[in-house]
Amino acid sequence: MSGKAHIVGDHIDTDVIIPAGRLNDPRPEVLAKHCMENLEPNWVDRVSPGDVLVAGVNFGCGSSREHAPIAIKACGISAVIARNFARIFFRNSINIGLPIFECPEAVDATDDGDVISFDLSSGTITNETKNQSFQAEPFPEFMLNIVDAGGLVEYTKRKLQTQG
Amino acid sequence: MARPMTITEKILARHSGAEEVAPGQFVNVKPDLVMANDITAPLAIDAFRATGAVKVFDPDKVALVPSHWAPPKDILSAELVYKMRHFAREQGIDGFYELGRGGIEHVILPEEGVVVPGDLVLGADSHTCTYGGVGAFSTGVGSTDLGCALATGETWLRVPESLRFEYNGKLKEYVTGKDLILFTIGQIGCDGARYQAMEFVGDTISSLPMYQRLTMCNMAIEAGGKSGIVPPDDITREYEDGRAKREPVYLESDGEAEYKERYVWDVSEMEPQVAYPFLPSNTKPISEAKGLEVDQVFIGSCTNARFEDLEVAAEIFKGRRVHERLRCIVLPGSDRVWRAAEKAGLLDVFVDSGCSVGPASCGPCLGGHLGVLCEGERCATTSNRNFRGRMGHRDSEAYLVNPFIAAATAVAGHLCRPDDLN
Ligand code: SF4
Prior knowledge:
The complex is a heterodimer of chains A (164) and B (422). Chain A has helices at 14-17, 28-33, 67-74, 87-96, 104-109, 141-149, 152-163, and strands spanning 2-7, 52-55, 79-82, 100-102, 115-119, 124-127, 132-135. By secondary structure, chain A is an alpha/beta fold. Chain A has one domain: Aconitase, domain 4, CATH 3.20.19. In chain A, strand 3, helix 4 (87-96) and strand 4 form a beta-alpha-beta unit. Chain A is globular, with a radius of gyration of 15 Å. Chain B has 2 domains: 7-17 and 26-264, Aconitase, domain 3, CATH 3.30.499.10; 275-420, Aconitase, domain 3 (2-Layer Sandwich), CATH 3.30.499. In chain B, strand 7 (162-168), helix 6 and strand 8 (197-201) form a beta-alpha-beta unit.
């Protein structure tokens, strides 16, 4: 996977990612149109499929709405790299299968528009433009199992099946 | 002998079947209650069905509360509530709280005694942390987590480090739990408690009434906290007496328990606080905020819409009028609160003053319904978030205050204290 970096700041909250007024229609393709509109109207027009969001601290703070990672994923963003994430957003992203990386070094080294590629299983992030590689904080094993299963629903389904 | 533990660790240990747990450990827990609202339940129901499950793990341990679009504001939101109601019926879930017998989830669940001390509660809403006020561990998750918990009756949690916040001193007039938590968030920042459990103690807390404890724990998430908790004491016991629907478990932190950080504050000189846009951590004392003109005042939300919050506001409105330059919206936090406020004459006071009293709904708190702000409008609000666009247009502004300040501001037309009105 690779794509252009879109840089946003610190404490990007869920009301910025997807305003509450848009939550009455939870279809991913509808949420996608409004992603980040509180940061900048029509922000999504700049996103091409595969692009990467690069953020500061506490990304995704605020509400528990899963609509936030869904909107990000549905508008074409392939991964979020941040200094760190708010707790619920972190869980939600893993659960719906949106790749996320905590990696302050990669954030520091990235300029808007740089081409970024990543490998989820190894946690490696590469800034192709600058020819630099970074290692993100690895996931604990059982979380990787959730990601490997394709998200929590699939993981739970398998678990329920084996329990019979 | 188990290792010394905080109250949070003890609750997590009890619900994971372990003798002891330590921060950083991942545990599988069985919640006493799982909850979702009209924004999160519909997606959770989809996730539940996608797991292949047919029956929820235990219908008596599920609460479904339509509070955000209550009553539904359009066809789409009506469909969300419809989906919840039908799911509740299909699954035999009695804990479906329709408007008229419900309200905001975080107001009604402790009030109805459905959440009790010692509980572990998983809620698909970030303000689920509210129930720490009664000495429960409760935390917010997303819809997929909740849907899977509906199927299995369990979830994974990372045992959080605990932060100890000790407040000492007698609070001045017009200073409340809301101000303590706003001050705290101002001190440690919006991520100062990220992934951690906030424990509130000290002699100020020992005499803090339950409704204000719930307010404090409600906003733990605004500091990034996983949970907030006030260890149970006599005030808790009194609150639960005749209310708790299950046997409470009164736990306390061990004296030797480990905390990642300890904060000790003398709050006897503290002023009421105001959080400026666009972060709850942008706090100032009211004396530095005085005079800022507003277009709307909102008294409500899961933070400050319990009976006593309304009582406080009504006291200020008595014999006064809402300033002509603004509208003031009062939404009681639950139908029970609504009825009690009506009986006590509080609603009369609000209406006589020129407030608009509405249903027990989240309303303008989340900017979707019943009092949305347009470009350039400012709102003084007793709710918990002032992020950009939270209450409406991206160029509207929300200022977080306690109910005393909200009511005084509604009368004056600008931010001020009740004693500035004379
Ligand atoms: S009152 Fe506001 S913060 Fe509380 S549950 Fe409703 S929308 Fe969320």
